[in-house]
Amino acid sequence: MAMVEGVEARGTHHCETTALGVLLRHEGLDLSEPMLFGLGSGLSFVYWDGKGMPFPFIGGRVKPFELTRNLAARLGLTLTTQETTSPRKAWENVAAPIDAGRPVGLQLDCYHLDYFRSKVHFGGHVVAMYGYDEHDAYLVDTDQQGGAVRTSRAALAMARAERGPMTARHRSFTITLPARPLSWQDRIVPAIRDCADAFLAAPIANLGYRGIGKAGRQVPGWLRRAGEPRRDLPQAALLMEQGGTGGALFRVLYRDFLDECTRLIDDDDLRAGHRLYAEAAVLWARVSSLIAKAGETGDAGHLEEAGVILHDLARIEEEAMQALRRL
Prior knowledge:
Layout: E1 2-3, H1 15-27, H2 33-39, E2 43-48, E3 57-61, H3 66-75, E4 78-82, H4 87-99, E5 104-108, E6 125-132, E7 136-140, E8 148-152, H5 153-161, E9 172-176, H6 188-200, H7 208-218, H8 222-225, H9 229-242, H10 251-262, H11 268-297, H12 300-325
Antiparallel strand pairs: 1-6, 2-3, 4-9, 5-6, 5-9, 6-7, 7-8
Helix pairs in contact: 1-2, 2-10, 6-12, 7-12, 9-11, 10-11, 11-12
């Protein structure tokens, strides 16, 4: 058995920030989950309904692993990433740092993990691995999935080898702090500005605040779009509110990040952004509730109301990001 000592599983919500927290605490940098999410410029929005998709996808964050890259670049961290098509090499890539006393991050498809309650394919799931024995791998996942958990090495191998949307080739990574770490407090404003710039200047209408407006136009027709409305709509609502987003499609995490920032930075635009994202978080929770009710009842009126709120959200989030970009 090989086990990294002192690894702590905390009550976290989002997979990538959970893994980052484990790796960074082991390096001596202890930041809250909202702060990790915000420093990684993690907030975004996408509405996607491609050919062959069984149901539209609504996402509230940047692409998998982009948050990790953003955070490493912003804080001057050494991010060592390994990918391979060889399962044997993939195992060596994770066993080596653990044998050396360091936890390692993994990107995989959660469908195959023994402890996962909901069997849904998602190739952008991220966990921290801190140990293994002959049969099992020891992981830290979100609080929703059990925190400190374990899965069979066979299941882990299948999860890492899966191919499909958002998957990576057995990706593993470690993080090292520089000899003279940068002041993370000094990186808050650049992180907020970069997030706001990307949100306001998204290259296509499916993204950013324009994407929220598009969702406002499309969601009212979801009963007709769904193959099985009683399954598809509540599942979409569940993913928005509880599927590792921290609540309200990641808006709760970003609200809490901005709240933490207001305690460090005295700025009217920052306070305005926080106030608007606090309002947005409440409205996103209302949207997910209405989508679920529409699927359960078949009443399109709930989706019409959700569409109206989404148009309000597009305006609110655009205004919030304009304020935050002025920092």
